[in-house]
Structures are given as C-alpha cells and as structure tokens.
Amino acid sequence: MAQKMLKFISREREMPQKRAAAERAHDFDEIYREFAREKAAEQAARCSQCGVPFCQSGCPLHNNIPDWLKAVAEGRMEEAYRLSSDTNTFPEICGRICPQDRLCEGNCVIEQSGHGTVTIGAIEKYITETAWDEGWIEAPAPRRERTESVGIIGAGPAGLACAERLRRAGVQVTVYDRYDRAGGLMIYGIPGFKLEKEVVLRRWEQLEKGGVRFVMNCDIGASKSFDEIRLVHDAILIATGVYKTRDIGGPGSGAPGIVQALDFLTASNRKGCGDAVPEFDDGTLNADGKRVVVIGGGDTAMDCVRTAIRQGARSVKCLYRRDRANMPGSQREVQNAEEEGVEFVWLTAPKGFTSDQRVTGVKAVRMRLGAPDSTGRQVPEEIPGSEYTEGCELAIKALGFEPEDLPKLWDVEGLDVTRWGTIKADFRTHETALDGVYAAGDIVRGASLVVWAIRDGREAADAMLARFDAAVAMAAE
C-alpha cells in the first residue's frame, strides 16, 4: 500500500466548511458542516505519525489519535471508530465541544513546526457520526449480568460515562438527576450551535435501551435522601457538577435586568427543546431588541454573547478585565463571536450598575496588567480616573460556578470537602471518605471541561469494578 500519511507539507490544514455568520447568527444549528469522506481522509493523512504523539498526551483521555487518524486516511472507518470509542465514551461530543486548540491540536507536532495542526476534533466528530449512520454504535449489552448495584447522582458527562462503563460490565445502574432530561450542562448549559441536543439525547436513549435506569426530577435532599439511596446500592457516585453561580456586588447589583449566565442559557435551551419558559416569553431572560453586556471571559461568557446575538439583541458587548491573550475562553469561540457581531471590550472591569426601574448600564473601569502573581499571571489593576458606563437593558454575569454545600444540603456526615467546597476524593480511585461513595467530575475538580468529567467517570467505574471483583474473590476463598 502506498504511503498515505505524512501529507502535511503537500496538503494545507482545512476545517469543515463554516456557515456564513449572517446565516448562522439567526439560528441555533451547529455552525460547522460535516466533512465528506474524501476530505476527512485527506485531512487525516496530514498526521505525521510522530514517535511521541503529543496530541495523545495533551488529551485528558489519552485518545489513540494517531492510530485512528491513520485508519481514516486508509478508509478503515469502523476500525477508526473502535479505536476512538475504546478510550472515549462520547467522542462525537468531545469532537464538537472540546477546546482542541488548548488540548490535542494545540500539542500537535506539525502545528509546532508551522504547518498547521491536524483537524483532530472535526475528524473525531466525523468518525462517530459515520458510526451512528452505519449502525456500529450499540447499546451497552453485557455478556453476563452482575448482582452489584450502583447509584449515580447526576446525569452529566461524568455520571453518564460511569453508567455506560459499569453497564457494559453487567452492573445494575440507576442514575438520579434533578432535571427532566439527562445530559446536565450539555443539555441546559451549552447552546445548540455548539452541541445540538439530539446528539446528547440519543446517548440517553441508548443507555436506557442498555438497561440503565434513570430517575429524573429527583432532587437529592428534597424528594429523596442521600442515605435512602445508599441503602439500596452497593456503591454510589456523586457526579452533580457545580451549579452555584459566582456573583459580583456593587451599587445597583439587584436591579431587574441583571441575570446569571446559567439562568439565561437554561431558558434559551429549554425554549429550544420546546418547553414553556415564562421568563423567556416575558422578556426577563430574552435578549431580543436589547443592548446586552456580558461580564466574563470564559467559555460560558462566549455561550452567552453568541446566544444573545441569535435571540435578536440590538448590540452585544463582552467585558473582560484582562486582554485577549489572557482570557480563559477558547480563542476559536472568540473568533466565531466576533464574526457574528459581538464586540469585546478588553481590560475592563465592572464596578456596579445604573438603573431606572430596571438596569440601564454597567459601571466599568479601564484596567491594565500589572506585575505577575504567584502563578505567573499578570494581575489586572484599575487605571485611576477611567470610570465610564456601558449602556444596556440586559446585563449577564458569566463569572463561573462554585460547588453547592452538599453535606449540608443532603444532611450527610463524613463527606469531606476541600477548602473550595468541592468533594474530597482520591485522585486515582475517586473514592471519598465515606465507604463505597465515589465522586467524579466538576464536583471534585471545580468547573472544568466535559472531557475531564468523562475521564473521571470512567476511572470511577473501573475503581468500583475492582472493588466488586475483590469482594467476589474474598467471598470465594
């Protein structure tokens, strides 16, 4: 067979075609079109097959990227899917929403040599969409059933990844979640233009077909106690995520028209799912016709500004206290937002709000980057006398998330937490201070990436299986 790889010199990097900004800014459909088979193979063939695959080490799941790129280039699509799914429970989701520019693609060897990284994320998405079309993706079907039972609290990426891995091993799995749909922030936090909801919902349906039991609209501590769940399962996974929003005060911070990012995004996503959302319909959580100011520079802020554009905002500005090079959000998302009409106001911080019955503006001050702190990151400093007001009718706070006080909410003793309020768990087994209770995802890490949650959920499942196997071996002695 002729050499199909190492084509990075003769073939330039290409992403799937991106819909024009004027078109995509009016709907919530995904903005990238699908690769055709020939184009996916051509782009996969750009991989250098380097001896030390930094793309793989840059991926939290350590996906076997070079091997499945070679399989795509050589037309072995089912093998590519098997390789991809061996290490990743939801590769089509990671292919859509992972910040590849900071992970696999950002560590690509040919990117470092100036030839442009392989389009790993787009090919990963293409592989799994092909697998869905061809019927290669099947519900988890264990070879034999086990008697052990696991309760998983939280139907986000960590909980679902753990459920899938346990169910394939034959464990009896029940997932409890406070919402009416599985997926967590993948359903109600991330907008459809990055992750269409059907992509998540079909995984939920597949897990149900495979025997995972879901108990939805179940708020632990209210509708069901934590101790009650522990009594009926051999092990528990806490995978609730972090939903408590960080806030800023200042004069006028309680005025109508100042909302939290998660409330804004949830209302928009529920509306897109066909739900009745009174706060959207009455304009409280709707940007239509308004001047919008979003405060923050992370991926949640990017989701908010791009959602506001699609809702028909008159103007959208994003205030961030550092410069573009130092923002935590994806640079790719910033570019997409700018193309769609968002204005970024760098080196600007909020000081308060003006209002007349409802919010009329954000009091802001210009910033400059001062000396580095202990982490090496430059500290923003106010520029004296630079205060001004950004006019708006809707101000959205996108300042990140913190963990809820679960020991208090669930009335459970012995569940240790860190000084940040996250659950304290062993970094290898994910077991907490409570025997048989594990924790994974953002509730341990703090607000992080979906790919890290998937990794944690898989590792927790493996630790539970090791525990069960050890118990079986001991009983047989």
TrEMBL record:
Give the cofactors, semicolon-separated.
[4Fe-4S] cluster
Q: Where is the Dihydroprymidine dehydrogenase domain?
A: 24-135
- Asked if the Swiss-Prot or TrEMBL record annotates the protein with the keyword Oxidoreductase, the reply is yes
GO MF, one annotated term = 4 iron, 4 sulfur cluster binding
Q: Which Pfam families match?
A: Fer4_20, Pyr_redox_2
- FAD/NAD(P)-binding domain: which residues? 150-457
Q: Which UniProt keywords apply?
A: 4Fe-4S, Iron, Iron-sulfur, Metal-binding, NADP, Oxidoreductase
List the PANTHER family.
GLUTAMATE SYNTHASE [NADPH] SMALL CHAIN, GLUTAMATE SYNTHASE [NADPH] SMALL CHAIN-RELATED
Query: Which protein are we looking at?
Result: NAD(P)-dependent oxidoreductase
Where does this protein come from, organism-wise? Thermohalobaculum xanthum
